[in-house]
Each structure stands twice: as C-alpha cells, then as structure tokens.
C-alpha cells in the first residue's frame, strides 16, 4: 500500500537584498527602454531613463504610476501638464491619454501590471517589452 504524502505549496523565500535604484540605473544607458527590477503581486516595478518626447497614448485597462528618481518629467495630459520633480509621483488613471516629456535625462520608476506595453494603445516603433535587469 502506498503511503499518502501531503502536498504543500512551498512558502516563498523573501528576498534578503534590497534593490538599490542608483546601482540598477548605472547598469543601462538606453533611453525609453523599461527595465524590470521587481514584481509586486501582479505588477512589475520598472526603471527607465527618458529624454525628449515620447508618444501620446493611453492604457485603457490600467492606471500607471510614475515616480521621478532624478531629473524632471512633464506628463502632458489633454487637461493640462503635470510636472514632476525628483521624489514626486503621479498616477495616470486608466484611459487618460498622456505623453511623457523630459527636457533633460530623467530617471523614473514605473509600477504597472505585468505585460503593460510602454506605448499602450498607440503601438508603433517605440513599443518595447520590459527587459529584466539582473
């Protein structure tokens, strides 16, 4: 007779090393290229470096959190611009058309559901999937 073995789901081991944003940002130089640095539930935490103007787009099904790590970011909205300095964040609500603009190189942290495209519904040549950053 076979022994009954109870199946249990292993408890995830918590990370023991904090993520240093400055170190992660030093690992890449590409502009407008999102780098995934962590997962939170069904969301990805991503870093990006921006300079210039992106593309007008919306994310019909999700909000998008922008946190400026360094530099200055203008989020153009049809209702008026939102200017973010280092240490400030703004959540663009789902369905709100926006266009990020950075006059100087700016580093940002993004929080959005896994698989969210950077160009939202606009598509085009700037569309890139987030790359994991080791």
From TrEMBL:
InterPro entries: Cupin_2 (IPR013096), PKS_Associated_Protein (IPR052044), RmlC-like_jellyroll (IPR014710), RmlC_Cupin_sf (IPR011051). Pfam families: Cupin_2. It comes from Streptomyces paludis. PANTHER family: 16.7 KDA PROTEIN IN WHIE LOCUS. Residues 52-108 form the Cupin type-2 domain. This is Cupin domain-containing protein.
């Amino acid at each position: 007779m076979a022994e009954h073995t109870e199946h249990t789901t292993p408890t995830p081991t918590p990370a023991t090393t904090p993520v240093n944003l400055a170190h992660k940002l030093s690992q890449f130089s590409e502009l407008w290229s999102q780098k995934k640095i962590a997962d939170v539930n069904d969301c990805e935490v991503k870093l990006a470096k921006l300079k210039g103007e992106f593309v007008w787009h919306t994310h019909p099904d999700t909000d998008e959190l922008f946190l400026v790590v360094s530099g200055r970011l203008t989020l153009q909205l049809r209702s008026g611009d939102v200017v973010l300095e280092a240490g400030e964040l703004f959540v663009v609500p789902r369905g709100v058309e926006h266009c990020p603009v950075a006059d100087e190189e700016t580093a940002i942290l993004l929080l959005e559901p896994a698989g969210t495209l950077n160009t939202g519904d606009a598509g085009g040549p700037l569309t890139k999937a987030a790359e994991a950053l080791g």
